[in-house]
């Protein structure tokens, strides 16, 4: 009976893995750095190279359940762990906006091989490179191999107005807008033309990354992607978020207030654009006190969360329908690992919860029983009540598989100079120009007034 119970419990805590009926075959090296190539199915590669996805995740006993896991991600003190420092580059976009790219890597990164993989990060709703969930991946990924790390480079793409990035155009970011990550990847690929680029997105950034991969298909500048706690179906998950008093008060209003706080930081900058929809919406937003997420999106995001078209949208719901990524999964054409927790209070509806879901042959979808929203905290055996993020290990296994074992088959898209900007051949609406500013960024410094971890 005891043995049976142990087996049952182990199975209950083991992530559920979903593949397409016919997983894609990927070219891989028989041994590291070898020119001998063979094809292997994505499902076989995950089984062999990502063993943590096949093992149980047991949350720390004092952080069981999705709410506690999520709370700890938001209020825990992570300033003493996973320290990462960055050098920031500012890019001006064609529409006058500014992106903040935070670069990091092992000591003496300039001596790394030109084929060293680069991890490209998209953060959550109002986050940035300082977030603990970002650093939990990048600290070991950018640690040297002799110290147990991967020895990779990394770049965090901070959205417009986030993490100290100046707002220089009357436009926000959104969960569905992909032009900024497309622009950032143009710049990153020009710096590292021979390096595999590996994307990872968290929460809202996960949705953006999924949409980018689906829109680009075989033209993706990313070799592979990994998305954690993506909101997928915005309509279904926003409705679930507003369905109970607890979720509305604790989660929806917290997310809404974070966005109000972020908007308030840019009042002076928006004064330069008196006729813009964003500036017109600002007085109503500034008067809000802990609004629901839907209330903020109705007042501002639907109007100025991206370029026109498709913005502005008639309503927040119209924006949610457009921004969702669950229905784009069949269009993915590079390897993508998606991980969600079944008890995530912010994302209770997943694409694989229904028999109608369809996955691309390039997608691996993993669902853990517990973990909350960007939590996945397990006991750290090196201390009595310490915790560590379980998610770090499977993500690093996936990154190593895609960065070192899988063969780079991307087609390089030529760039050109036009009107002072670097642009892609065949496109004139996006491009970048490096501008002054940036500098050294200490990753453990939080943004005052914003609740982290979401």
TrEMBL record:
Active site per database record: 203 (charge relay system), 344 (charge relay system), 373 (charge relay system)
Keyword entries, A-Z: Signal
Domain AB hydrolase-1: 117-351
Domain of life: Eukaryota
Record InterPro entries: AB_hydrolase_1, AB_hydrolase_4_sf, AB_hydrolase_fold, ABHD4
GO molecular function, one term: monoacylglycerol lipase activity
Gene Ontology biological process terms, A to Z: medium-chain fatty acid biosynthetic process; medium-chain fatty acid catabolic process
Residues spanning the signal sequence: 1-20
Keyword NADP included in the entry's annotation: no
Matches recorded under SUPFAM superfamilies: alpha/beta-Hydrolases (SSF53474)
UniProt keyword Signal present: yes
UniProt cross-references to PANTHER family, sorted A to Z: ABHYDROLASE DOMAIN-CONTAINING PROTEIN, ALPHA_BETA HYDROLASE 1, ISOFORM A
Family statement drawn from the similarity comment of this UniProt entry: Belongs to the AB hydrolase superfamily. AB hydrolase 4 family.
Name the record gives this protein: AB hydrolase-1 domain-containing protein
UniProt source species: Steccherinum ochraceum
